[in-house]
Amino acid sequence: MLTELAKTLDMSEAQVELLKRGHEARWISLVDNYLIHTVRRIAQQPEAALNDKRYFAAVQELVKRLATEGNVVILGWGAQLILGDQPGTRHFRVVCPLDQRGNRYAQRARIPVDQAMAECQRQDELSAGYVRHYLKRDWAEAELYHLTLNLGLMNFDHGQAIKAIQAVL
Fold first, then answer.
1. b (16+ CB within 10 A) / e for 28-63
2. Cα 113 from Cα 115, distance rounded (Å)
3. How many CB atoms are located within 10 Å of the residue 151 CB?
């Protein structure tokens, strides 16, 4: 599937090979390339812009196709609802108090804590709004998840949390 998606984005064979060799980064790179491809297409043909319905249909297709690959971790995109009770899927929510996330982000990005906290809060609002708008649900509903992992009570970062979740699977 990775090769098929990459080719639709007019990526070279060398770029496809690099994506195949990567692990977690390959999907991020593919999504980045998809975004760049979409922006270029819209710049050339404004009528090609995705409307709300087409955008979400594309997101649903991408999430479902990624899930069929097996052994993948999909962060966000409303995957907990898009995939619902699909056999073999597990839905985890990773939470952490805003002040801890703000402090971690400020250190990592080397920005003031108040700016980092504002960015974390903005991201939370965007994510919650996305789920509310497209899926008509509250992303904080406990019944949407098999497990909630509170990083505020643990001594590791987001990347380590993903590894912990993979270990549970």
1. ebbeebbeeebeeeeeeeeeeeeeeeeebeebbebb
2. 5
3. 19
Q: How far is CA 67 from CA 21, 22, 24, 133, in A?
A: 19, 18, 14, 22
Distance CA 98, CA 100 (A): 5
What's the confidence (pLDDT) of residue 24?
47
Residue 63's alpha-carbon distances to 27, 31, 148, 154, in angstroms, are 11, 11, 21, 29
Residue 148 in 3-state DSSP? Answer: strand
d(CA 150, CA 134): 26
Question: Higher confidence at residue 36 or residue 102?
Answer: 102
pLDDT, tens digit, 9 for 90 and up, residues 123-164: 999 889 989 988 999 999 999 999 898 888 887 666 777 777
- State the DSSP code for 27: H
Total Cβ atoms within 10 A of residue 66: 21
